[in-house]
Specification:
mainly beta; Cathepsin D, subunit A, domain 1; 2 domains; six-stranded mixed beta barrel; five-stranded antiparallel β-sheet; 4 helices; 36% strand; globular; aspartic-type endopeptidase activity; aspartyl protease; hydrolase
């Protein structure tokens, strides 16, 4: 499922925009964890399957667009001076959601800010008990129904609605006539989720209706100081996770940012060159790696996942999902193994914490845990494998997404999160 999640600096290389601290208005994201455990503490296989299939389908759909957009230069946008306030919705671990307002008068709803998708969609009906509410389209005087249907089909269900436009506000900054999907039918495991929709932060080429994204519209209207945003995901259930639009939050990381070129300008993918358990390299090879704040697990090709868990003592395959082909491993909860990556352009190893490798307790016993690294084969339009780097990794690293970069090509930068 939204394999859900979401999501600054002391030293910035000259190629990056400078940190903005005193004037930055930022939005603080938070939410509730996806329920991967049953009440008795056992691993919930059905929820895990839905999360995996949602993430898998996001990238399968994107493969259809890649040949047309790969290598295309992102249009230049003028530099604005406005900044964005960030609102704190509470504490979170896996599912990171933040406030978004839509319509006239404004209706405020919690949404997931997802770097792994480009669409904005909002529920317009009450599903189950709808504890977080939904968008009342008929109460907005600025809502326009474009009379166009939109359906996304996944292995475990579908999302159906109509394309519309309305005024959308995040952190006090607004875009009029923003395209989005007003969802009227959901059958994919979102019904019990702690959010009313998704705000995609990937590139317009991935939007199902191929209209400017919220970020595109902020840029074209000169509403960002810099065409950049940063994501900080706090560890555990602590407060403080944040998305900063138009600036880098220098208080959220230590050391210097390391910058990597984006490969396709579809999703935020950089090139992984090595996969590690501790200091031991278990796989070398150039594989595209998409940074995905909407993925509650890290999804790697099965051969790489097998190599990772082979290097973790007493690991074993615990569950196989025949629908997606996903493999879930378990291992002793007391393990101190840390999974890490290198990315093209740097020899630096980027490890997630050992605690981040644990996603949930396994049915085999209280002393064994399910790994947050899941094996599943997802391929691009040329048949080459893709890695999806999700929240377990991003909780250890402050991530910066530059829509232009020094040369006009988008970049992703990483620095150790505080």
């Amino acid at each position: 499922m939204l394999a859900i999640a979401l999501l600054p600096l002391l030293l910035v290389p000259s190629a990056l925009a400078s940190p903005v601290t005193s004037e930055t208005r930022a939005i603080t994201l938070s939410g509730s964890p996806v329920k991967e455990l049953f009440a008795d503490g056992h691993f919930n296989e059905e929820i895990a399957k839905r999360e995996c299939s949602y993430t898998q389908e996001k990238y399968l759909r994107r493969a259809e667009h890649e040949k047309a957009v790969s290598g295309r230069k992102h249009r230049k946008a003028k530099r604005g001076v406005a900044t964005v306030d960030l609102l704190n919705y509470g504490a979170v671990d896996q599912a990171y959601v933040g406030g978004l307002s839509i319509g006239t008068p404004a209706q405020t709803l919690p949404v997931v800010f997802d770097t792994g998708s480009a669409d904005l969609w909002l529920a317009t009906q009450c599903f189950d008990s709808c504890p977080v509410g939904y968008f009342h389209a008929n109460e907005s005087t600025t809502y326009v129904d474009w009379k166009r249907s939109s359906t996304s089909t996944y292995p475990t269900g579908s999302i159906h609605g109509k394309i519309g436009t309305d005024t959308v506000t995040v952190g006090g900054i607004s875009v009029a006539k923003q395209f989005f999907t007003a969802v009227s039918s959901i059958d994919i495991g979102f019904k019990d989720a702690p959010f009313a929709g998704v705000m995609g932060l990937a590139f317009q080429a991935m939007a199902s209706y191929n209209k400017p994204t919220f970020l595109d519209n902020l840029m074209s209207a000169n509403k960002l100081t810099q065409n950049i945003f940063g994501v900080y995901l706090n560890q555990g259930l602590q407060l403080g996770s944040s998305l900063t639009l138009g600036a880098i939050d220098a208080t959220k990381y230590t050391g210097a940012l390391t910058e990597f070129a984006v490969e396709t300008q579809t999703y935020w993918d950089i090139r992984a060159s090595g996969y590690y358990v501790g200091d031991k390299v278990v796989y070398r090879g150039g594989i595209r790696a998409a940074m995905d704040t909407g993925a509650s697990a890290t999804y790697l090709p099965i051969n790489i996942t097998n190599a990772i868990y082979a290097a973790i003592p007493d690991s074993q395959l615990g569950y196989f999902d025949p629908a997606s082909g996903a493999q879930y491993y378990n291992f002793p909860c007391a393990s101190t193994a840390s999974v890490g990556f290198t990315f093209r352009g740097s020899t630096k190893k980027f490890h997630q914490t050992a605690a981040a490798l644990i996603s949930a307790a396994s049915p085999v016993g209280v002393n064994r845990c399910v790994g947050s690294v899941v094996g599943v084969d997802i391929n691009d339009s040329t048949g080459m494998p893709i890695s999806v780097i999700g929240v377990p990794f991003l909780k250890s690293w402050y991530s910066v997404y530059n829509l232009e970069g020094a040369s006009g090509t988008p970049t992703v930068s990483l620095a150790a999160a505080v």
